[in-house]
Amino acid sequence: MKNNIKLIVVKDYDEMSEVAFKFFKSEIECGATNFGMATGSTPIGLYKHICNDYKENKIYSQLNYYNLDEYHGLDKTHPQSYYTFMNEMLFSQINASNCYIPNGEIDISKSIEEYQKVLNSTTIDVQLLGVGVNAHIGFNEPGTPFDIQTNFVKLKNTTREANKRFFNNNIDEVPEYAITMGIKDIMKSKKVLVLANGESKSTAIYNMIYGEKNELVPASVLQDHPDVTVIVDFKAASKLPLKTMAIDVSSTRVKIGVFNSDLERVDYEVISHENEGIYEKMLEMVKPMLNNEIYKIGVSISGYTNNGIVSHPVNKMYSFDVKTKLENDIKRNVEVINRANASAYGEYYINHHSASSLYYISLATGIGGGYVANGNLILGTRGLVGEISNMIIDTHEFNHEFFADGSIEMHYNTYKLTKNEKLFIKQMGTVVANIANTIDPEVIVFDLKNPDLEDSLIEKIEGYANELLYDVHSCKINIVKSNLVDESLIGAAMYAMKGS
Ligand code: F6R
Q1: Residue 290 in contact with residue 332, Cβ under 8 Å?
Q2: Cβ < 6 A, ligand 1 pocket
Q3: How far apart (Å, rounded) are the C-alpha atoms in residues 464 and 471?
């Protein structure tokens, strides 16, 4: 992707409209007065924001507006003329009087001449563009020369088909001709803002940014414009080769990795930390690694996590809403996932993707887990799946708190287990047998994060668990030891990319 194109990927139409509005407003604040406008369904949300803001901010009535195009052969008053559209959606609501739209009622050459005169007398500061499914901009259909100015066009059937929704779903009612600002005029504007949403635009958006510049793909001309901002939702961005950043926060280190869409790591940094100021340090590291192609961030953190919010953080360093804070600080979508859940996902992807299901258990400072079935990370209604640390092993001590006394984690963090290994083997073996009896995963992976723990511990837990299993199991459980180092980082990237 060329540097002149700034890509912003957002989650949906509403966010696209909101971000476009902020862009529009900041351009006005920086002195822009001449705006090139578009019709169609794409900019409606943006226009709503402008109309809303007009209640407080009257500047909109003093700006100059230049529309891209108009159907030929429709009266201005026709409900689907772009004249009517712009008046209803925007101009009448913001009391704008300096509005220019090609005239579709009069003689074609006169209309072209009049509109070109208008365009020649001004410089558009920001040209707003929607994109057709065939990558048209304005009504410049595929095959239109890049050096053309205001012109008369015969609309392609794909365009009339896409627009029939405005004409009682009847293609015969869609005009066959239109007058449009030319590609040369569009390219003369100082800035271009392209908006697109929905899967149907994904090929056009890919070709516009990454395809060969070609008159058959009118929007690809923008590769040569010096200042283009593209705001697209995930669906319209779905064919773009975007990157994902993963941030893995453990109690001693922060790892940051950037992954391409094939989950290959293309950038990597690690810092050690003590908890003080860790968020700020992490931010300092993240910012220089960010670029336009990174559109999503996955964060894995220890602690109970539900809907992206970490509560009961193990070491209290993230006892705030990391998702919202980071999203505000770096303007990207952020997904937060429990570290052991992320590890389960990463472990599954790297070592066990042919298994139908996997249960992952880590023995680190605390005890964590995660469950993956049919390629999906299973989180449960409240995000509790995998929190085996909560398994109650002593009801006498149980006090209904998260990490309650009486839970396995309170009995055995790794510090305590080295003191009473025998009992730990029995109780962890019981937990594993219960997982096998209730969840029945194909593979159980154990990750001994503490270097003081010996591999023989796994064999002992496995042996004890197998003694306890119900007879219905035709085979015994086989616990596999993990030997990965970056599984939680990869899991966080996967979670950001494809969800659970
Ligand atoms: C409209 C225009 C067209 C549309 C494009 C997308 O003035 O010039 O290029 O932007 O056809 O239309 P929607 O937004 O309806 O998908």
Answers
A1: yes
A2: 38-42, 68-69, 130-132, 136-139
A3: 15
- Residue appearing with tokens 């800035």: 191
* Structural contact between residues 370 and 386, judged by C-beta atoms closer than 8 angstroms: yes
Q: How far is the CA of 219 from the centre of ligand 1 (A)?
A: 12
Q: Which two tokens stand for residue 174?
A: 């869609």
* Rounded Cα gap, residues 245 and 324, in angstroms: 16
Give me the count of residues in the chain. 500
Strands 253-259 and 243-249: antiparallel
**Distance from chain centroid for Cα 302:** 23
Give the integer Cα–Cα distance in Å for 46 and 37: 11
Which of the listed residues 139, 144, 167 should we mutate to test ligand 1's pocket, taking the one with most ligand atoms within 8 A of CB? 139
Contact 446, 363 (CB under 8 A): yes
Distances (CA, A) of 121 to 115, 221, 389: 10, 23, 71
Residues catalogued as catalytic: 69, 134, 136, 141
Edge-to-edge strands, sheet with 177-180: 69-71, 177-180, 151-154
Best CA proximity match to 336, nearest among 386, 283, 304, 299: 299
Q: How much is the pTM?
A: 0.68
Q: What is the pLDDT of residue 416?
A: 61
Q: How far is the CA of 222 from the centre of ligand 1 (A)?
A: 16
**Cα(121) to centroid(ligand 1), Å:** 25
Which tens digit of pLDDT belongs to each residue from 201-228?
999 999 999 999 999 999 999 999 999 9
Cα–ligand 1 centroid distance for 331 (angstroms): 27
For a mutational test of ligand 1's pocket, the pick from 136, 150, 153, i.e. the residue with the most ligand atoms closer than 8 A to its C-beta, is 136
**Helices 13-29 and 44-54: angle between axes, nearest 10 degrees:** 50
Q: What residues contact residue 477 under an 8 Å CB cut-off, 6+ apart?
A: 432, 433, 436, 444, 462, 465, 466, 469
